[in-house]
Amino acid sequence: MAKDEKKKVAPISDLTICEATAQMLEKARREGVETAFDRAADMKPCPIGAESACCKHCFMGPCRIGSKAPYEKVGVCGADIDTIQARNFGRIVAAGTAAHTDHGMHILEVFRDVVRGKIKDYQIKDEAKLISLAQSLDIAVDGKEIKEIALELYEVLEKTYTQVEGEIPMVKRVPPKTLETWRKLGIVPRGAMREIMDMIHRTTMGVDQEYQNILKQASRTALVDGWGGSMVATEVSDILFGTPVPVEVDVNMGCLKEDEVNIIIHGHEPNLFESMVASVSDPALVGKATAVGAKGINLVGMCCSGAEMMVRHGIPHAGNFMSTEAVLVTGAVDAMGVDVQCIKQGLAKVADCYGTKLFTTNPIARMDGVEHIEFNDHEPRQCTDTIVENAIDRYKNRNKPIEIPQIRNSGVHGFSHEYINYMLGGTFRSSYTPLNDNVINGRIRGVAGVVGCTTPRAKQDWVHVELVKELIKNDVLVLQTGCSQISLAKAGLCTPEAAKYAGDGLASVCDTVGMPPVLGMGSCVDNSRILIAASEMVKTGGLGETIADLPAAGAAPEWMSEKAIAIGQYFVASGVFTVFGVMFPTVKDTRFHKMLFGGLEEMGLGKWGLATDPHEMARLMIEHIDKKRKALGIDKARERVLADMADRREIAS
Ligand code: SF4
Ligand code: MSK
To answer: Quick one: which of 425, 450, 448, 449 has its CA closest to 436?
Structure first.
């Protein structure tokens, strides 16, 4: 475990603003335990790969083109820099889309088997959502039993994944003018399997060698993620496990309890976590825990499955992606169960150092040297009860000193798009009209989605927090998901009291409604909630006819995953200006880069932006929001007038 003396070591104050993580990184260093922060300091990214200026799609290469203008160098096959970058980009989108859609398809299969009575451990929790989703997809519901509607809904939603021709079902939720643009451009998705297959096919050696055409398919593939795989995952998870409503919940490593059996679930699919909730509530298992001297069993989430359970059930959350190794350094985690996505292989060594029992559970995601307890949706408790028993055993035999950073941050999370509708409109007139009115009258300048990962390539949480502080100060309402939401929760900005940091207009809306200026919506798959909120704003009227008309922008300030690029591209293809931090995998000034960062907007879609500094990122987003306000004729802040629908349409014209 002794650290290699030659390795570069970055000061911890440069790595994170999360005090708990910093405290654990200090401890890890004292104890000679390595984390991703250390590995990143010692691993200089390949500059050619970082700019996507190389290709290994065949073995006449791999070819390194480099990023020197005028970009005359080509690969052995003759592929130029634009083709190479577009192919790489398309494959990143395909990989991210595959992750979200495989997750969504799995949840849909669970739903099917629940409805058919083959899975007994889960039930339909939100019948009202089931009915409203069915109606939104033109499924007749009158006079039908819930089971009949649910089976019809399953048949329709399955097309999201398996359909080979036609349009995916959820396009019915897209604003008509946005859909018209997609149809004109030929980017309406058919089905996820088809689009991902097409994307991978056309980017093999010697197939599609026109960057515009490759990007067209990348947009189509990304859209089947946002409006398909991810949206189905979110909607069906809500139907099965409950639609989030605001709940007060604690975040940070102080959620661990020294005198209880601590279990962390980390990953993405909610079914593992749901079963674990049942296991830790089982009196027999609680009894076993107390029999060994524990005061109880403490279940805590991390990363996105944690974010999803936090918004749905108010389960405490210990930290985001860059804290998953650090949390094990506390020595207090008795067991960690992981499923899919964003699980660092480095966890295995850290868990080993501190005696935490780490378990993989998903058949597609094993780790060398880590015990696998397969999770089966038909018998979910077999897996989760076994993890609990192992955790109790580890508690009984704890033999490492425990140091839990005593930091907990309370906040309100769980703003589903349904709840935003209700919150702003009230019980009897649920609608997005009050939100649109407040945007039109200027109290809310615009809406921003700030989402995505944390990474050792940026100071953890800092870019998220600085960006959001500046946005709300400028009256931009912030919607959040994923690891970003945890960054902001730790900074204390997910409370109604945080309205004091907002500009006067946004603060007045927050005070009236009693909401925070930063609305946490869930996991990275739940970015689909932001799409639906945007769609509802367009359909409500007064803010243009397409998502591209909205005074809105998106950002992933500390992104690292292929999934983030897929999400970014589905927001861009939906019409949103989307700014990424850290870096972007293109060579600036190539034709492909220009198309992403401007050309797509000229075609009626959104566009990408890049800024590593949060204040520059905020400037870009606010400038874009103001541009859209000007185009809508609402650029001058006005006192609120209660406009009716006709008035709002007039403002839009
Ligand atoms: Fe090189 Fe062309 Fe093969 Fe890519 S596809 S590795 S550019 S020869
Ligand atoms: S977990 S994709 S680090 S948000 Fe969804 Fe967090 Fe990014 Fe993974």
So the answer is: 425
Q: Whose CA is nearest to atom 3 of ligand 1?
A: 58
pLDDT in tens, 56-66: 999 999 999 98
pLDDT by residue (tens digit) across 310-353?
A: 999 999 999 999 999 999 999 999 999 999 999 999 999 999 99
Best residue among 100, 273, 303, 527 to mutate for probing ligand 2's pocket (most ligand atoms within 8 Å of CB) is 303
29 in a domain, yes or no? no
Determine which residue's CA is closest to atom 3 belonging to ligand 2.
Answer: 453
One domain for residues 104 and 137: yes
Q: How far is CA 194 from CA 86, 401, 488, 571, 573, in A?
A: 19, 52, 37, 20, 18
Ligand 1: residue of 57, 74, 81 to mutate (most ligand atoms within 8 A of CB) is 57
Give the model confidence (pLDDT) of 490-522 as tens digits.
Answer: 999 999 999 999 999 999 999 998 999 999 999
Q: Which residue has the tokens 């907002």?
A: 502
Would you tell me the crossing angle of helices 433-440 and 527-540 to the nearest 10 degrees? 70
Distance 452 CA to ligand 2 centre (A): 6
Query: Is there an atom of ligand 2 within 6 Å of 452 CB?
Result: yes
Å from CA of 6 to ligand 2 middle: 31
pLDDT of residue 649: 46
pLDDT computed for residue 418 by the predictor: 87
392 and 467 both lie in a single domain = no
- Output helix, strand, coil percentages for the chain, rounded to the nearest 5: 50, 10, 40
Q: What is the DSSP letter of 17?
A: S
- What is the total count of domains within the chain? 3
482 lines ligand 2 (CB under 6 A): yes
Can you give the residue range of the structural domain that contains 213? Answer: 81-241
Among 58, 59, 87, 211, the mutation site with the greatest number of ligand 1 atoms within 8 A of its Cβ is 58
pTM of the model: 0.95
Note the pLDDT of residue 641. Answer: 41
Q: What is the DSSP letter of 227?
A: I
The confidence score (pLDDT) of residue 643 equals: 40
pLDDT tens track for 458-490: 999 999 999 999 999 999 999 999 999 999 999
High-pLDDT (> 70) share of the chain, %: 96
Statement to judge: residues 431 and 353 lie in one domain:
no
Give the number of the ligand closest to the Cα of residue 558: 2
Same domain flag for 455 and 486: yes
Ligand minimally distant from the alpha carbon of residue 99: 2
Assigned domain for 576 exists: yes
Q: Is residue 445 located within the same domain as residue 590?
A: yes
CA 626 – CA 614 distance, rounded (Å): 18
Do the strands 552-556 and 518-520 form a parallel or antiparallel pair, or are they unpaired?
unpaired
Ligand nearest to the CA of 562: 2
Select from 48, 56, 80 the residue to mutate for testing ligand 1; criterion: most ligand atoms less than 8 Å from CB: 56
What is the atom index within ligand 1 of the atom nearest the CA of 205? 5
Least confident of 110-114, 343-347, 422-426: 422-426
Nearest-ligand number for the alpha carbon of 103: 2
Residue 425 has pLDDT above 90, yes or no: no
Does ligand 2 have an atom closer than 6 angstroms to the CB of 339?
no
Give ligand 1 pocket residues (Cβ under 6 A).
Answer: 55-58, 60-63, 75-77, 79, 84, 205
Closest CA to 317 of 406, 251, 262: 251
Residue 382 shares a structural domain with residue 514: no
pLDDT at 637: 54
Domain final residue, candidates 396, 426, 449: 396
- Is 402 within the bounds of a domain? no
Measure Cα distances from 331 to 24, 337, 359, 447 in Å.
10, 16, 16, 41
Output the domain CATH number for residue 354: 3.40.50.2030
How does pLDDT run across 384-400, given as a tens digit for each residue? 999 999 999 999 999 98
Does 40 fall in a domain?
no
255 DSSP 8-state letter: G
Domain boundary residue among 362, 396, 430?
A: 396
